[in-house]
Amino acid sequence: MPNIPEDAHASSGSFGDSNPSVVLEAAAATAAALLSNGAAASEAAEAASQITEAGGMQTATTSAGYSDVTIYWTDSEERTYFAIRPVPARVFDYGRLTSVMELVDRVRSGHVRPYEASRSVRALEQQRARYPWWATRLATGAAGSMASVLFGGGPFVAMAAFLVNLVVDWLFTALFRRGWPSFFVQAVVGVLAVAVAAVIQAIAPETSPAVVVVAVIIVALAGMTSTGAVQDAITGWYINAAGRIFEGVTNTAGLVAGVQLGLLVIHLLGLPLSISQNVGIGTFPLPVVLAAAALVALGFGIASQTPPLAFIPTALLAALSYATFNVVIPIAGAIWGAAGAAFLAGLIAVAVTNRLRLPTTAVATCAILPMLPGLQLYQGLLELSGRQPRPGSSLLAAVGTALALAAGTSFGEYCGVILWRALRVIAGRAFVPLFASPTRKGRWESHRTAHTKGPQRATSGDQRLTPDDEN
Questions:
Q1: In angstroms, how far is CA 49 from the centroid of its own chain?
Q2: Using CA atoms, how far apart are residues 307 and 304, in angstroms rounded to an integer?
Q3: How far apart are CA 94 and CA 436, in angstroms?
Q4: pLDDT single digits (tens) 160-197
Q5: DSSP 46-113
Q6: What are phi and psi of 386, to 5 degrees?
Q7: How confident is the model at residue 309 (pLDDT cuts 50, 70, 90)?
Q8: What string of DSSP letters covers 437-463?
Q9: Do residues 92 and 172 touch, judged by C-beta distance below 8 A?
């Protein structure tokens, strides 16, 4: 692509062959694409600011909300422009996230004109997935199969977990395409998991069929895992954080309701399911369990379209994190074990991803997925059904573990940015997690009260306001 001409960002109000509305629309589209693919609000707002600054609008104000991105700018003649872009449904497409972050870096470095970013983002949104549907479906099944191994599932249980997670992935795709709310989709998945476990128990009573339920829970929870929500909360983007956390809670509630309904039906039919109360590494040797953890992370990496360059670092980091998790558990318990392991994952991921030019969240999030509290959640559901003692204690432990994973990863990334910059391990601004408040001076807060001059009208289609004399 051609380089930006010097007059394209020489001063505020000088745009070369672009115009303010197009640049603002490009910035808003880029920020919305980042938010929809798992980036934190501060990172999305920073990306929008880099594009507007490259377009000569140093005083543009960005508001990165939960459901939309709004950018305002007032020129030297007091004419106000703004662009609003809704945030699409949140998905985990780390390949697309990587491409958008690369685009922002190219705009910042001058290799892409700011106004071209909107067209580039639109092309990224329409391009085919990096991996075909059958590859991501097989990867999801493999991840579920290896998740069962983490809790002692034998070959028969692992194969059953593989098959049921293939069906789960197909259900997710089919029901979402038909417009089903995520809550009901998760509920259907929960019922299906329990039904399959009952069938397995009827076929092979000597196995541990409930491990299949745990594997399905982990796969379902992986689709809701976002460390960006905690990062938003820590850095003061409270509305974004509340929205993302509540979205995850609602989806988890659907899963819980489905599993609970399934357990109730199974109990009424006289087919009780049980599972060990020990949270450990199962019955396999440690090297086997660590290999399973690495394959779980790798499977989710493929399912979330992570670039191939991240496969080896993700697998190694997952194994290291899971080893740390199991070392700390006997000393401090599952919650602190999860926090310590997630901290290590975030710390190391910052240095690795900066070198490989990959989003930190892609590697760190996949690395912590083997530690998701699927077993604790299942035990909590058994307690609520009255078939285990201390009702609710395991559910509280599951919530604590989930928060520990998210907070530990964010804290590790934060410390990693400070440490690795001091040691000159990382350089530049691209592919480095950003921890910044929405009220940081000089970038996202409103620089002045905007007063418009002359008649204005809203244009259709791109949701931006443009002065009549610009048409």
A1: 22
A2: 9
A3: 22
A4: 999 999 999 999 999 988 989 989 999 999 899 888 88
A5: HHHHHHHHHTT-TT-EEEE-SSEEEEEEE-TTS-EEEEEEEPPPP---HHHHHHHHHHHHHHHHTSS-
A6: 80, 15
A7: very high
A8: -TT-TTTTS--S-----S-EEEPSSS-
A9: no
Residue 392, C-beta contacts closer than 8 angstroms, at least 6 positions apart: 380, 383, 384
**pLDDT value at residue 397:** 84
Residue 8 has pLDDT above 50, yes or no: no
Q: What is the pTM of this model?
A: 0.83
> CB count, 10 Å around CB of 152?
18
User: Residue type at 426?
Assistant: I
Question: Which distant-in-sequence residues (6+ apart) come within 8 Å of 65 by Cβ?
Answer: 87, 239, 240
pLDDT at 345 over 90: yes
Residue 349: the pLDDT is 94
Say how many C-beta atoms besides its own lie within 10 A of residue 458's C-beta.
11
Phi first, then psi, for residue 429 (nearest 5°) are -105, -20
Q: What is the DSSP letter of 4?
A: P
User: Residues in the chain, how many?
Assistant: 471
- When mean pLDDT is compared over 91-105, 237-251, 377-391, the highest value belongs to 91-105
CB-based contact 385:260 (threshold 8 Å):
yes
Answer whether residue 205 shows pLDDT above 50: yes
Helix (H) or strand (E) holding 466: strand 464-467
Q: Is the pLDDT of residue 12 over 50?
A: no
Strands 61-64 and 80-86: unpaired
DSSP string of 350-379, one letter each residue: HHHHHHHT--HHHHHHHHHGGGS-HHHHHH
Q: Could you tell me which of 62, 154, 20 has the C-alpha nearest to residue 434?
A: 62
Average pLDDT over residues 264-271: 80
Query: SS3 of 255, please?
Result: helix
- Read off φ and ψ for residue 231, nearest 5 degrees: -60, -40
Distances (CA, A) of 38 to 135, 231, 465: 22, 11, 28
